DUF4174 domain-containing protein (Xaviernesmea rhizosphaerae), 144 residues
Amino acid sequence: MFKSLVTEVLGVGADPVESGASLRDFEWKYRVLVIVQDKTGIEAAAQADSFMAQADALRERDLVLISVAETSARVLFGPTEALTTTHLDAGALLSDLDAAPGTFHIALIGKDGTVKLTSDRPVDPSSIFSRIDQMPMRKDEMRH
């Protein structure tokens, strides 16, 4: 299920440059929130908008927001380096997250590269922020 995600995150196996995947680029620097678009895109757009409306909270938690459609993936929010140099493979992400194309899905990936939460329903941003704030690495960040 998460075989290729582990490959990307840990750098074991396939070359991420050849595969076009680059989640590994975020490891130990950023948390990643992936939103997979539903067929109409309405649910995913509303979910993305709910997070984008809280840009300060995203920035404070080192969160990169990625939108994935059937054939494309793009960074919606994140540092300049993520917005300009990251090329994600939509098919690989869908496979990694065990998400069906055209079906809404959201996944939170920690800085350590592990999947922390998945849902096939929209999630309130405050619940994601709360979950992140309970993570040991985030608690350490808040102390410093």
